[in-house]
Amino acid sequence: MKKYCLALDLVDDPVLIAEYENWHKAGNGWAEINASIKDAGVLQMEIYRTGNRLFMIMETEDWFDFDKKAEQDYNNPKVQEWEQLMWKFQQPLPWAGEGEKWVLMDQIFVLNPSVIQP
Fold first, then answer.
1. What is the distance between the alpha carbons of residues 72 and 46, in angstroms, rounded to a whole number?
2. How many domains is the chain built from?
3. Looking at residue 49, which CATH number applies to its domain?
4. pLDDT tens, 36-64?
């Protein structure tokens, strides 16, 4: 299993942030989106927020590949519809690449390295 941590900013507007959170409450997301995430090898996903900054933790199968997931998403009309909807709320981090939303974070500390899988 692999673990990835990613970050993204929301538009700094309390109304839009509340609406974004509402879309992500249990039962409000689209089943097709959850299925596409799972089909790509994502075993668990959590999103946390502080202010307008989001932090995502993904636990994946060893074979998970970001490029393959991006290609699958590009070819899935329902995922594209969801992504267009979410862009209303999201803004890229200043150091994000062109068209990049979620940015991978670098791990800088581990309390107990012996319990972390390589």
1. 21
2. 1
3. 3.30.70.1090
4. 999 999 999 999 999 999 999 999 999 99
Q: 25, 32 in Cβ contact below 8 A? A: no
Percentage of the chain lying above the pLDDT 70 cut? 97
Those residues whose C-beta lies under 8 Å from the C-beta of residue 103, and which sit 6 or more positions away, are 6, 7, 8, 92, 93, 95, 96
Tokens, residue 40: 């790509």
Tokens of 49: 């927020």
Question: In DSSP terms, which residues pair with 57 in a beta bridge?
Answer: 5, 46
What range defines the domain where residue 11 resides?
2-115
Query: What is the DSSP code string of the chain?
Result: -EEEEEEEEE-S-HHHHHHHHHHTSTTTS-HHHHHHHHHTTEEEEEEEEETTEEEEEEEE-TT--HHHHHHHHHT-HHHHHHHHHHHTTEE--TTPPTT--SEEPPP---S-GGGS--
Q: Which residue has the tokens 């900054």?
A: 53
| CA gap 20, 72 in Å, rounded | 24
